[in-house]
Amino acid sequence: MVADKPADSTNDKLDVLKSTQTVVKKALDKLGYPQEVYELLKEPVRMMTVRIPVRMDDDSIKIFTGYRAQHNDAVGPTKGGVRFHPNVSEKEVKALSIWMSLKAGIVDLPYGGGKGGIVCDPREMSFRELEGVSRGYVRSISQIVGPTKDIPAPDVFTNSQIMAWMMDEYSRIDEFNNPGFITGKPIVLGGSHGRESATAKGVTICIEEACKKKGIDVKGARVVVQGFGNAGSFLAKFMHDAGAKVIGISDAYGALHDPEGLDIDYLLDRRDSFGTVTNLFKTTITNKELLELDCDILVPAAIENQITEDNAYNIKANVVVEAANGPTTLEATKILSDRGILLVPDVLASAGGVTVSYFEWVQNNQGYYWTEEEVEEKLQKVMVKGFNSVYNTAETRRVDMRLAAYMVGVRKMAEASRFRGWV
Ligand code: NAD
After folding, report:
1. Cα–Cα distance measured from residue 332 to residue 402, given in angstroms and rounded to the nearest whole number
2. Is the pLDDT of residue 4 over 50?
3. CA angle (56 as vertex; 54, 57 as ends), nearest 5
4. b/e per residue, 134-163, with b = 16+ CB within 10 A?
5. 3-state secondary structure (DSSP) of residue 197
6. Domain 12-178 and domain 198-340 have a common topology
7. Is the CB of 332 inside a 6 Å radius of any atom of ligand 1?
8. DSSP designation for 121
9. pLDDT single digits (tens) 52-75
């Protein structure tokens, strides 16, 4: 028998849970909430660790470790993706669930935050093994999830096929078809139009709003995108279609740079389902070099802790929009803000995904489905409103955009927890 080992960050500055808690505390202090509210919100109210046995293709049994965190359910059911990755850890899943609560607060959804993860490497697994892990995970967590309790969705290395297996497994347990259990499903199983590209669409709307504030014309602006997966590749395409010049993109193996603008349609055509494309090219640069390219807009859309105090002084973009969760450390946030760079934080910029997930759940609950145009129109309104409430909070309270976003995001669940008499 073999088992994947969960990994944990030991460096405090790169500890995403600690840095999230630091900003939650600052936000609550600024809003005047007492310590007990922080004590409630600093960790998920519920955290489940599960062990999932799966028969592998070579007939061995492998035991996978999975997590489900439910941060706060005062406002409504918890909601958030499931990540399949070798580096998934308890701390990361907890931090991600808090970020989901903040996102729901910023774009005013009737949810708290949830998140799940399984320690595995889908790049090394067959389709059948992935199905086994997906179904096993749902069986393990079925008692605490459901359309009115906690609604999963896709995240890193999970997709609509995995959502379909999970929905099917849950429907078997429940003994009726239950599409509202999970979002990010294929359209034929009750998925929403526009869900696949929703995160990138939301990031695009934030870029447009940020550019208005900075007096940058999106048409002709030079854009660098780190990561060419679901979020990064759609974003590169939307920017390219809006007339921007995408001069750099990357994946886990390296980066591509062309000051005249990359052929995004060609790259989209050649990338694999894990967002890898640079392996097809002889001349590449490193991810570190990519982040420091001379450009107008930088979008980290890959993984955590990419902009740190080591490279924040070398960032040349005027606007940094975080499509990924947690790509910038707190030290780097301060450096970028002090340098006058407009940083649109993850909990705001990537909230388009959960917003359209919410639309999908609403459509499943009412059994009436919207067109892509209707979804886009609603998303536009939600994101512009979210952006402006964070931007205005930053201006009026004289705080950086990350703290402003946390202030806007935390308020609703703090209020709801107070009204319920919890704190
Ligand atoms: P994905 O798995 O589809 O793509 C990830 C991309 O990052 C791939 O191109 C991969 O090669 C690249 N990558 C992986 N490790 C890297 C490394 N060390 N250096 C550089 N690149 C690396 O994932 P995604 O769904 O696009 O998510 C990307 C980020 O956006 C994550 O932080 C995720 O939490 C966040 N996010 C995604 C969604 C969504 O709806 N997909 C929603 C909100 C936030």
Report:
1. 11
2. no
3. 150
4. bbbbbebbeeebbbeebbbbbbbbbbbbbb
5. coil
6. yes
7. no
8. -
9. 999 999 999 999 999 999 999 999
- 335 — phi, psi (to 5°)? -60, -45
Confidence at 10, pLDDT banded by 50, 70, 90: low
Mutate to test the pocket of ligand 1, among 84, 155, 270, 360 (most ligand atoms within 8 A of CB): 155
Which of the following is catalytic: 115, 185, 237, 245? 115
Please name the fold of domain 198-340. Rossmann fold (3.40.50)
Closest CA to 387 of 291, 334, 322, 338: 322
Whether residue 88 contacts residue 82, with contact meaning beta carbons closer than 8 Å, is answered with: no
Query: Is-contact 120 6, C-beta < 8 A?
Result: no
Shortest-distance Cα residue to atom 43 of ligand 1: 350
List the chain domain ranges. 12-178, 198-340
- Look at residue 3 and tell me whether its pLDDT is greater than 70: no
Superfamily assignment of 12-178 in CATH? Leucine Dehydrogenase, chain A, domain 1 (3.40.50.10860)
Position 12 scores a pLDDT of 75
Q: Is the pLDDT of residue 401 over 70?
A: yes
Q: What is the mean pLDDT of the chain?
A: 95
Q: Is the CB of 234 under 6 A from ligand 1?
A: no
pLDDT one-digit tens code per residue, 255-289: 999 999 999 999 999 999 888 999 999 889 999 99
The answer, yes or no, to whether residue 396 has pLDDT greater than 90, is yes
CB of 306 within 6 A of ligand 1: the answer is no
282 counts as catalytic = no
Query: What pLDDT does 102 receive?
Result: 98
